[in-house]
Amino acid sequence: MGAQVYGKLMMIQKELKAPKGQYNSFAKYNYRSCEDILEAVKPLLEAKGRVLTISDEIVSLDGRFYVKATAKIADNDSGNSVQVTGYARESETKKGQDESQITGTASSYARKYALNGLFCIDDTKDADTNEYHSQSEKALVREIKELLAVKEMTIEDFEKTAKDKLENLSVERLEKGLEWLKKQ
Questions:
Q1: Quick one: DSSP state of residue 67?
Q2: Separation of alpha carbons 138 and 99, rounded Å
Q3: pLDDT over 70 (residue 14)
Q4: For residue 76, which of 33, 42, 95, 129 sits 20 to 30 Å off, Cα-Cα?
Q5: 174 pLDDT band (50/70/90 cuts)?
Q6: Is residue 97 helix, strand or coil?
Q7: pLDDT tens figures, 117-136
Q8: What DSSP designation does 90 have?
Q9: C-alpha torsion angle, residues 123, 128, 133, 136 (rounded to 10)
């Protein structure tokens, strides 16, 4: 019986398309929220006869508070289930937010990552992750180094022409890469 819940989960994972429906205008990237994932998965859950529940629990680890979110998918007929947890640490303070909003923010992140785990959504390439920023900066540095070698340019020459010649790279990314190159 337990295999049935895994089989249906596998089908949902295969069919799920959770678009990045949110836009961060400050950092200029698209991302998916917990709500985007839920909106995309609800029709699949209904079609496969499954129920999804998400719950939160506040836990203390090493003197810090975390929101532990559990996403659980259950088979309507057998009651068998699979669950995944995600954690997000509450900030001690966040400008412009009161304590309940800080907890809500942590809850949203924890729920999103529990859902990512349950439905095999890979967010490592999403612009709101540290891994994405690290990979992007490394890629930019490689691009700039290659360009400088090919063009036989100095960094100063590159700075003068980058905005005109490299329209597909954002100025913000170019500036980060150039700053890193200057330190080398």
A1: E
A2: 36
A3: yes
A4: 33
A5: low
A6: coil
A7: 999 997 655 455 555 555 55
A8: P
A9: 60
Which of 42, 39, 62 is closest to 51 using CA atoms? 42
> Residue 113 in contact with residue 77, Cβ under 8 Å?
no
CA-wise closest residue to 73 among 95, 42, 100, 102? 42
- Given the DSSP bridges, would you call strands 50-61 and 64-75 parallel, antiparallel or unpaired? antiparallel
Cβ atoms of residues 33 and 112 within 8 Å: yes
The predicted structure's pLDDT at residue 134: 55
Q: Return the exposure string of 113-140: e unless at least 16 CB atoms fall within 10 Å of the residue's CB, then b.
A: bbbbebbebebeebebeeebeeebeeeb
The tokens for 79 are 């009651």
Q: For the residues 94-99, what does the mean pLDDT come to? A: 65
Contact indicator for 40, 147 with CB cutoff of 8 Å = no
